[in-house]
Write a structure and sequence with these properties.
The two termini are about 25 Å apart. Strand 4 and strand 5 form a beta hairpin. The mean pLDDT is about 90. This protein has a 4-stranded mixed β-sheet, covered by helices on one side. It has a two-stranded antiparallel sheet with strand order 1-2. A two-stranded antiparallel ribbon has the order 4-5. Helix 3 packs across helix 13 and helix 13 packs antiparallel against helix 14. It contains 18 helices and 8 strands. With about 450 residues, the chain is an alpha/beta fold. The protein is globular.
């Protein structure tokens, strides 16, 4: 009886040949499953987030040097957008981890091209298995990053080994993608998004979406990311991220990062809706590139300022004097980042936007859910079925989604939470013999006993 357990429409679950699975691809659920093995699936998002900070340093150091790497890691760790997503069960933080892991491997491939190329391909393939659209749009710039060294005879042998190893790793992940699709939808080329009813219609410029609607979504994403990426004043915005280009950079890696960030950001235009849950999440995979560009912009600005001040003074100034002249830029950007992070953690920032927590505390605060669970605890149900009768719309869907996940995966736990099936309640109750029935409303919270479900035919509840 799927209608008794439907917490959103279109459904987030697909049922194929007796197998019940989320419509999401496998990358993020696989990471949560590792946490489940030790009884702590909640551990994985913050763990992957912490590892992402380390990987951000490695990527920044490999591309531009230790200073840029340290600054990029610090900016990521203090980003409200990053902290929001590393504190939730959504897949974007996991995708960011695989993205940075692939970049870290590829930018370290000089030391061991085969091993790093293979690791980069596996991680990129996991990115595709986590957020297929982001993986697809990043394929072209990553191919450019891997293949560009082949233009030089000196670097061609190493680049060839990296490319072949990357292709093998990515190919293995494509095989896994097809196998997982076949296991959950019956077709290796049909993923859960496509199989889950109208979800497949949520992408593209047909039906409810249009190019104009997609551009509106892009404007909304840009406005939101200016608020939450670093949390600092809007007059700074993305100034440091575009500074390398404003100052005439010729560094290929700068343009690579810009291409990657722009492609991920632009891809959100094909979604039928703008969904600012924990920030503009459809463009979350652009965050690592924008953070790296911001750190790079601060580094370039500091260097240019040092050059200018040195040129006005003693042209034979030492490197230490040059650094001292550039130091105000680093002090400014780190100081503003610390202040912005502190403001968000303490709930003292000025911005408010529906769906985006205005503080760290707001991530976990759901007063209606807490009140409801307090009522359930006071009723102390056991071997019960709780029928949710009144379920108002909340941001993102029905309030039942806050309760559905509390069920055992096999839907046979001590307490089973269901939605009211109306005329089908009798058939639902027959599937749960000899249980106490409770009828509940979510807001305002209430729970009252309503008798018991019947015994199986020919048996008694005693």
């Amino acid at each position: 009886m799927p209608q008794a357990f439907a917490f959103t429409e279109p459904p987030f679950m697909i049922d194929f040949d007796g197998r019940w699975a989320t419509f999401y691809t496998s990358g993020h659920p696989l990471m949560l499953a590792l946490g489940w093995l030790v009884g702590a699936p909640w551990l994985m998002p913050p763990l992957l987030g912490a590892l992402s900070v380390v990987l951000m340093f490695i990527v920044g150091r490999n591309l531009f040097g230790a200073t840029t790497g340290l600054l990029a890691a610090a900016l990521l760790a203090m980003s409200p957008f990053f902290l929001m997503n590393a504190s939730t069960f959504m897949s974007h933080n996991t995708a960011g981890f695989f993205l940075l892991a692939s970049l870290a491997a590829l930018t370290a491939s000089k030391r061991n091209p085969i091993a790093m190329g293979l690791l980069g391909g596996l991680a990129f393939g996991m990115l595709f298995n986590t957020r297929p659209l982001s993986g697809a749009v990043l394929t072209l710039p990553f191919a450019g990053l891997i293949l560009a060294p082949m233009l030089s005879a000196r670097t061609r042998p190493r680049a060839t080994r990296v490319a072949v190893a990357f292709a093998i790793g990515g190919g293995l992940m494509l095989i896994w993608y097809a196998f997982y699709n076949y296991s959950t939808t019956g077709s290796p080329l049909t993923n859960g998004y496509q199989a889950a009813g109208g979800l497949g219609d949520s992408v593209g410029f047909s039906g409810n979406n249009s190019i104009a609607g997609g551009l509106d979504n892009e404007v909304a994403n840009l406005a939101a990311i200016l608020l939450v990426m670093n949390g600092w004043p809007l007059f700074i915005g993305l100034a440091f991220a575009i500074a390398p280009f404003a100052l005439g950079t010729r560094a290929p890696y700068d343009w690579f990062l810009l291409a990657c960030g722009a492609l991920v950001f632009a891809s959100a235009a094909i979604f039928v809706a703008y969904s600012p849950v924990y920030g503009p999440r459809y463009v979350y995979e652009a965050l690592p590139f924008f953070i790296l560009l911001t750190a790079r912009g601060a580094d370039v600005t500091a260097a240019r300022l040092g050059d200018a001040i040195t040129a006005l003074g003693d042209r034979t100034a030492s490197q230490r004097d040059h650094l001292a002249a550039a130091l105000p830029v680093y002090v400014l950007i780190v100081g503003v980042a610390i202040f912005a992070s502190y403001s968000w953690v303490g709930g003292r920032n000025s911005w408010r936007l529906d769906g985006i927590p205005f503080s760290a505390r707001a991530i976990w605060s759901d007063e209606d859910e807490m009140k409801f669970l307090d009522r359930v605890a006071a009723a102390n149900p056991h071997h019960a079925i709780v029928v949710l009768q009144s379920c108002p719309y909340i941001f993102g869907g029905s309030c039942y989604e806050n309760l559905f996940w509390r069920n055992a995966p096999t839907l046979d736990g001590d307490i089973v939470y269901v939605t009211d099936a109306g005329a089908e309640d009798a058939r639902l109750f027959a599937a749960y013999p000899c249980r106490t029935i409770f009828y509940a409303t979510y807001s305002p919270a209430s729970i009252t006993p309503g008798g018991a479900t019947p015994a199986k035919t020919g048996e008694t509840c005693s």
